[in-house]
Amino acid sequence: MRKIVDWTQDYLHLVKGAALMYWHSKPPKHYLGYVLEDRCPIIIIPGILLRWGFMKPLADFISMQGHPTYVLPNLGHNLSAISESAKKVQELIKENSLRDVVIVGHSKGGLIGKYLLSNLNSTNVRGMIAIATPFSGSALSKLIPHKSYKELHEESELIKELTIHRDINKKIISIIPEYDNHVWSEKGSFLENALDNIEVVVKGHHKVVNDNEVKKLVLVSIKRFFVD
Fold first, then answer.
1. Kind and range of the H or E element at 45?
2. Which of 144, 143, 109, 132 is nearest to 204 (CA)?
3. 32: exposed, middle or buried (C-beta count within 10 Å: 0-12, 13-18, 19+)?
């Protein structure tokens, strides 16, 4: 019964986020208009089936701290191959001559970020904060008959390849909800050799993205890449 409640509450957050992503097609002007000199650039990457607007509350919060905040409308619903999406992130970095970038990725967005770090030699990325990311894959993806989900299951070549690149994990902080209804894996979102794995008292794969305490944790985590 408890899990049914958790799933229901999580999908209410999904519906709310979906409404935001269709309502907001363009990022607010303050994402790049309100910038403090000592703040690093942030790139927001959503999960599969989600547009950047799903993460707008978190992106807004980060932006209002003075971070130049970049989103990728050209990812659409994030159904492209992870390698292709990572190249789009790389292009954004090059086109804007960004340095000391911190990526904030949710779910598949964290896999895109890790692919960028491990396969595209992106030296301009300082680190990544991954939220509810299936680093070991998710058995749930096997139940969804869409080719975009094949990369996400535990036995996919993509997951196996990313797992090999353990050296890059020290540039990643993984934020893990105490219960994740979408990441079906024994390890959940735990990442071996990560800079940190932080479990938060939030139940839900989508709910965790815009939890108020998680928002504050993201800001603290951004600073860690410039101290540790």
1. strand 42-45
2. 132
3. middle
